[in-house]
Amino acid sequence: MSERAENTWRTVELQELLEPGRSISYGIVQPGAEVQDGIPIIRVGDVRAGRINTQSPLRVSPIIEANYARTRLRGGELVLTLVGTVGETAIVPDELRGWNTARAVGVIPVDREVGAYWVSLALSQPEVRERINGRLNTTVQATLNLRDVAQLPIILPPPDKRRRIEQIIGALDDKIELNRKMNETLEAMARALFKSWFVDFDPVRAKAEGRETGLPAHIANLFPDAIVESPLGPVPQGWNITTWGTVATLEYGKSLSGYNTETGKYPVYGTNGRIGTCSKPLCPYPGVIIGRKGAYRGVHYSSSPFFAIDTAFYAAPKIPIELRWAYYELLGLDINSMDSGSAIPSTSREDFYSLPVVVPPHSIQQCFTNLMEPSWRKQEQNHRSSLVLAELRDSLLPALISGKFRVNSDSQVGTCL
Known about the structure:
By secondary structure, the protein is of the alpha+beta class.
């Protein structure tokens, strides 16, 4: 696609911005049974907040995938969710070259002269989102068809203005991404320590074998010096073998509508994590949220009092425990396998209560939380910083992309008079 060089702002349909010879397409309709060494595909639940989750992709047979060469990824395309959670976008990184997508994910091969990043910014604008929502087919579940995607309006400033806007917004996105990566590293450290103490029992094994634990004496002394056999396999001597039903109850979340509709300082959680804020919490203490309904249910932790909506549970301790310990312990469970048998996949409280768990002494749990508290505090600071940056980006971008605010030649923002 050739660009006009005149100094005008114009609006074009998305289908005018595609790579020559390629079209907007959706992916594999019937992926079939998972194949261990198959071709990985991106599903609708993998696209969130501008990123593609590649940790556990569905892998399909190469024979099936061969019929969908049109959506075989090359890197640099924009993917758009078409079913369920409609309108999430992400740019395909080059390392996903050769992957494909599921039926619910559209592939938009944007011409590199314009770039997928610009189109993703344009698609995030309120008027475009309103148009997407107005075109949804909601007979069974929200679905956006490709014809409507092709006709979505994309604002195109002159190339030099577009690049400067990308630089301004990109700098904010880069800082948000840096915070995310830092938090990933800090979280990996916490999970590694949890695994060492409470899964592999490294301090106990070291003491049992007469080796140094590598821990300060006041911490090492908290751990027993023997591993014993149990119905769950080898466990530290003296640790409590019980079920989750004796440790905690799962309390139902509530509908936010009618309870509290005002935004505020308390986070709101649903099946898949944090979804907003409110002014009055349901759970008066920091704690654990467990997805109750949906095909992809997760376990989440809130570092402040919070509200859980009615698609989620929150954990209420029945014995003295550290909820941070419970959170990491619950991450090791396959929550999505606890299906109540209803039409909508749901977590079964009864199945949860019957699950076995090895509970370490509360003093060791407290030691774990005390050691990791600075790391979690830094994660929360980074998260709050990213929320502020995202708010700035989301308020600045519409003014820039519409031309209300113009960028000067030195990339500073000026008011359009």
